[in-house]
Every structure is written in C-alpha cells, then in structure tokens.
Amino acid sequence: MKLEEIINQLYFDLSEFYFIFQTAFKIAYEKFELHIPNHPTRPLFRATRLFDPKYMHIGNNRRHSIYQYSIINELNNPSDNLVHEWGIYCGLKSDENIDESELDIYWNNLAICLPIFSQIVFGYLYLAMLLNVVFLYIILF
Question: Which residues of 103-140 are buried (b: 16+ CB within 10 A; e: fewer)?
C-alpha cells in the first residue's frame, strides 16, 4: 500500500503531510550537509562499498584498482596472493539479487576461493553497517 493511500485511509489531509515531510527532509538534509561530508570516517565508509558486489561490478572500471582503497590498511600494501584474489573478485559476475542484508552470506560463500580477501571483508563489513547507523543517527538527531 502506498503512503498516500494510508494517509487518505486514516482521513488525514494529504497537503499537511507534504508540508511535514518537506520540513523533515529539509532539516535532515541540513544536518547531513553539516556533518557527513566532513566526517573523518567518510573516506573509510566510501571505501568499504567495494565489499558490495553490486557497487563493485557496475559502472566505473577504475573501481577495480586495489590501490584506490588504500585507506583500508590491509589493501595499502597487498601481498601477491591478495592481488590475485582481488583479480578474481573483480572478474566475478554481478548478482543483482544480493541484498545488503545478505552480504555476510555472499562472503561466507566466497571464503573458500577468496580466503585472504574474505577475511578482510568480515573485518570491515560490520564496521560499514555500524557507520551507516551512526550517519543515520547524526542526521535524525
């Protein structure tokens, strides 16, 4: 059911809700602009997107340079074995059906063929989720 249908079903004035949502969005956006672009963990947060295969395998091929993610300590000076696993990861086909909430399952399945890289991923995967929550908290409160 669409939000507009729920509002109408509860006999609220739709125009009042538009004003409330616009105001709430404006406040959240102002908080975002104030805190998030300059937040010290933002570069790390952006780098951890590489662990999401949808981000990694769609779009720009420059994402395939392991050295672009050097803010992640383990990728700063990669071993030959890690570079080899990185190449395998970059060559994998994208699975559009993977949901962000299932990334742990995705990486568990890859742990056999990418043991070094998947171990790094698990160290940062939960950190990325935590950063999402922190950023959301900053915006909302």
Answer: beebbeebeeebebbbebbeebbeebeebeeebeeebe
